Each structure stands twice: as structure tokens, then as C-alpha cells.
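User: Please fill in residues for this 251-position structure.
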């Protein structure tokens, strides 16, 4: 790739790349290319992106692929690929890189799923993953990294065409213990390992079953509890900075 004109951030019309917060090998980026192109290369992670503008083309597993706005592209670890604009107007996309070991852990050690067709429409299974790219600037912490791994793992299994596992019954006791702890300690940055001890199960089971039970992730649930605390503080007349600090929104 000719990086001479590539900026770390830029406006549409100039080649640019911008990274969001990362953790545990999970990375997200927003990229726009018009004059630059990627030479053939490989990742040791899954690379899952969504085209946001223009036409994206790349060679993958012996064929030239075309990815249009709103379509997902799913690249397996260690698969060679390149990337370029399909027209002279350039293209933009957001992409998520996630280590295969995180995906495997979220699947309780099962074999890594392989998505044969790298171009996917936003069917429900793909939307699970596309949602993770809605805001690449959202911070990642231990709890949200587990939720990301579960969403990617479950989405990849569905897109791979593998037989669905029978949906397990919700571990009601574990998720209720987790919910009660998060509500009582909303001001704290509870670690995934701490929540595992409270719930008596692993972080990926907590993330998956919590969403099944409550329709949201443990991290999002904690954030919403913090917002309630801030709202109560503001209504009682506390200054905004003090309300944010006491509720855990500032360190």
C-alpha cells in the first residue's frame, strides 16, 4: 500500500484511516480510499467489515469480489486478500478485527466457523456483527469485549451454515446474580473476572444468557444504571461534573 497520501484521519475525498479504542486484540477502524490500494496481505485475526460508501473490490480465495454499501465482508484468519476502489470515486468502510482465540472461547472451544461466501447481505445473523461497527469510538472494556466476542461467534456460526446448536435454557440464577451485582455496583468498573465469580460461570455464558434474558449486554445494563444515578443527582441539584464523577462516568 502506498501510504504517502494516507492520513490518520481525514475528510471524504482524501485517503484516511481512523482507529477506535481497542482491547484484548479487538480493533476497529474506519477507512476511506480513493488513490491508495492494499497489496495482497493476510491477518491472523478475523477481519469483518461493512462498506459505507462507494464500491469495494478485493481478490479472495481465487475470485474477485465486489462489496457494495450496506454489505458485510467476512475474511477468515490467514486468508490472502487485497483491496481497492471499484470506481474512481473511492470507497469507505468500517472494519472489526478480532482474534480467533476469542471467537473460539466464546464457542466453548468449538472449531472456528468458516464463512465460505465473504460477501453477506445484512440478514439478521450479519446484523449482529454490523451493530458492533455502528460506533467505532465506543470504549471497549472487559465486559463489552466478551459481548463482542459472543456476537461475532454466534453471527459467524449462523453465516457459516453450520447446524444451529439447540438454544440452551437461560441460566436464570447466573444472570440474575450478575444483574443484581451490576445494579448494586454501577459506579464501579466491574471486571469480567469479578462478574464470573459472582455468577459462577464464564464471561461468555454471562454475555450470551444476559442478552437472552434482558435484551441487552451486561456492560450496557451497567451504563443505564449509571445514567439513572446521574439523573437523580442532577435533579437534586448537584453540579454536572460532580454527578458524572460520582456515578462512575469519570475517573
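Assistant: Residues filled in for all 251 positions:
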Amino acid at each position: 500500500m502506498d501510504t504517502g497520501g494516507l492520513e490518520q484521519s481525514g475528510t471524504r475525498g482524501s485517503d484516511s484511516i481512523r482507529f477506535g479504542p481497542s482491547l484484548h486484540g479487538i480493533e476497529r477502524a474506519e477507512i476511506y480510499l480513493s488513490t491508495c490500494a492494499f497489496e495482497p496481505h493476510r491477518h491472523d485475526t478475523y477481519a469483518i467489515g461493512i462498506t459505507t460508501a462507494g464500491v469495494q473490490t478485493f481478490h479472495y480465495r481465487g475470485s474477485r469480489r465486489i462489496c457494495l454499501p450496506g454489505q458485510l465482508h467476512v475474511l477468515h484468519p490467514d486468508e490472502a486478500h487485497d483491496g481497492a476502489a471499484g470506481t474512481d470515486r473511492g470507497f469507505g468502510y468500517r472494519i472489526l478485527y478480532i482474534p480467533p482465540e476469542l471467537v473460539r472461547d466464546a464457542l466453548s472451544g468449538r472449531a472456528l466457523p468458516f464463512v465460505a461466501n465473504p460477501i453477506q447481505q445484512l440478514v439478521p445473523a450479519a446484523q449482529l456483527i454490523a451493530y458492533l461497527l455502528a460506533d467505532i469510538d465506543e470504549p471497549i472494556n472487559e465486559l463489552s469485549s466478551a459481548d463482542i466476542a459472543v456476537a461475532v461467534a454466534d453471527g459467524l456460526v449462523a453465516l457459516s451454515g453450520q447446524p444451529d446448536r439447540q438454544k440452551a435454557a437461560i441460566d436464570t440464577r447466573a444472570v440474575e446474580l450478575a444483574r443484581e451485582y451490576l445494579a448494586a455496583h454501577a459506579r464501579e468498573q466491574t471486571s469480567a473476572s469479578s462478574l464470573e465469580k459472582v455468577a459462577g460461570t464464564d464471561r461468555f455464558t454471562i454475555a450470551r444468557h444476559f442478552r437472552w434474558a434482558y435484551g441487552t449486554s451486561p456492560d450496557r445494563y451497567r451504563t443505564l444504571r449509571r445514567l439513572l444515578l446521574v439523573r437523580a443527582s442532577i435533579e437534586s441539584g448537584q453540579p454536572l461534573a460532580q454527578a458524572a464523577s460520582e456515578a462512575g462516568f469519570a475517573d
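For context: Residues 194 and 203 are 10 Å apart (CA to CA).
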